[in-house]
Design goal:
233 residues; mainly alpha; 6 helices; disordered C terminus
Length: 233
Amino acid sequence: MLVGVLTALGVLGAIGLLVVLFLQRARDGMDLSLGGLLRVYLYLASLAGVIAIAIGLAGIISFVLAAAFGVDVIYGGQPPQPVPFTVAPCPPNVACTPAPVPPPVFLKDNRIQQQTQDLVRGITFVIFGGVFWGAHWWARRALAGIADRVSGLHRAYLILGTAIFGIATIAFLPMGIYQALSFAIVPPDQFTFRPGAGEALSGGLAALPLWLGYLWLVQRALRTAPPSSPTAA
């Protein structure tokens, strides 16, 4: 779920960013030089790296929460097992052949395997996303230097990251907390499968610090932005 939401938000945000940049530069001519297009790519790739880190953090958080609170809360209750099929006995003094009883097919409990897969996926995405983001961050610094922090492209990148992870936080975190509290408070029903809160809760907890980080960077950019020159009357 988190992968699909972050990917969709990232693609839509990237398209919106490109449209805004092209419309903004239309008055003075679009910067379609190799350096200008390279800077756009570096920012979009940096955002893709952060999204990969968020996906990895969600997997690690799911593993940690399952180890701390149990796999039932994070991955849902144990799959319901089938009731053994019984055959009515033959009536007294009546010769009959009992019907064959098919063997019951028990469902495999793969929650522990899913927990291990989340850990492996989380570590892989965090390492890959961190290296990917770090390489493009270094390339941005080498290409434009410190002065790039006051550019419109940098500000648009910060706003886009804030919006993506802010939407992901408000979409996943309340739902995950509700599912966890419902699992802990509401009495279980033996005939109903109870889904876990792991995907929503871990996704919200992974997006929350990234949203706060981007929001802090936006606030810092506002404080350090040069004052706009007054327009002539």
